[in-house]
Amino acid sequence: MNPDIEPVPDYKANAFDYLTTAVVVLDASQRVCAMNQAAEDLFGVSEQRATGANLRDYLQEDAHIGFASLSQLFLSRQPVTRRGAIITMRDGLQIKADVTIGFDPIGGNAIIELAPLNRLLRINREDQVLSSRKTVQALTRGLAHEVKNPLGGLRGAAQLLEKELAAYPALQEYTQVIINEADRLSSLVDRMLGPNQQPHLQAVNVHKVLEHVIRLIDAEMPDRITFNRDYDPSLPELIADEAQLIQAILNILRNAAEMFEESTTSNPTVLLRTRIVRSFTIGNQRHRLVVQIDIVDNGPGIDEDLQQRIFFPMISNRVGGTGLGLAITQNIVGQHRGVIECESEPGNTCFTVFLPVEAPENE
Ligand SMILES: Nc1ncnc2c1ncn2[C@@H]1O[C@H](COP(=O)(O)OP(=O)(O)OP(=O)(O)O)[C@@H](O)[C@H]1O
Ligand SMILES: [Mg+2]
Fold first, then answer.
1. CA 324 to ligand 2 centroid distance, Å
2. Is there a contact between 297 and 326 (Cβ–Cβ < 8 Å)?
3. 119 CA to middle of ligand 1, Å?
4. What is the pLDDT of residues 37-73, one digit of tens each?
5. pLDDT exceeding 90 applies to what percent of the chain?
6. Of the ligands numbered here, which is closest to the C-alpha atom of 343?
7. Which residue minimizes the CA distance to atom 8 of ligand 1?
8. Is the pTM of this model over 0.70?
9. For residues 55 and 280, what is the distance between their CA atoms, to the nearest angstrom?
10. How many CB atoms lie within 10 A of CB 94?
11. Could you give the count of Cα atoms lying within 13 Å of 336 in the half-sphere of its Cβ?
């Protein structure tokens, strides 16, 4: 060993906490004797509190999940790995993870490693998705600005012309076409550019936002849709722009409502579910606490080839749709440092919005 190189003190102990894999050490009677930071985040409990507890206190009993059988294997003391095990947390949240149980023959402890898969698989995808969405957004905004400037001139010129044509009412029909189309284009461009004020950040109760949107949709189509709620009452407030969040969720729910109208869905139902998620990565940023909002409808679903593109502007499969609703939603969610995802099959379309709990810094 080179005497000039100072050994890093307690390096291994520190590294334990910096791992993104959750590690739990169990003693011979299957009680927790240590866990790292990633495991604390995953199970939502501090190491101090968990010490001495049974790991099962933090997981739900579920006969068909991998963990139940892994626990049996633990008794046989054979090191095991289960790939893609589905694990149900205490709060009902399910994660897919590669689980490895190893044994420390000297201490007689079991070392459980849980490497959550769904998030890791998604991080790469999200990175790509987020950057391509940003490119498209910059392109549309640039284009919208270019279109907006000459529109004012076009409209003004048509108005002047209309005055000159006061003696020819039949010709005014043409100037009206120009003015009306310029107005239509201008409001389309405004929607593309999005809100031009700074977001008004305040403490926002997510359930209040959801209830508000339900009332709006219900007022548009009274008693047509059944709304089911599965709210986590312990959900923390978000620091967000309430009006923008309402707009974001309204766009999602309105789409579901419009698809119900267009299709022959019997018993149209929307489920609104909220959950708190720990240790969640969005883009390249890891957040300790994230609110998850699922909006699930039993409508006709979204064609698979369309699913990849619905968040881009001008993508629509609906007569009279401008294709901006979800682009606006994605823009608002992005401004709140969140991410939106969609999974769909006929009879089951789920839009999931993830929003970090900590306040965004003013930019
Ligand atoms: N819940 C859903 N069920 C089925 N299809 C959906 C659903 N949500 C969105 N879509 C599809 O995604 C497309 C894009 O939605 P988006 O809200 O961006 O635009 P739009 O509704 O067509 O127009 P706009 O919202 O601007 O009026 C829709 O045209 C529709 O085909
Ligand atoms: Mg829409």
1. 7
2. no
3. 26
4. 888 888 878 888 889 988 778 776 543 444 555 466 5
5. 34
6. 1
7. 255
8. no
9. 22
10. 12
11. 32
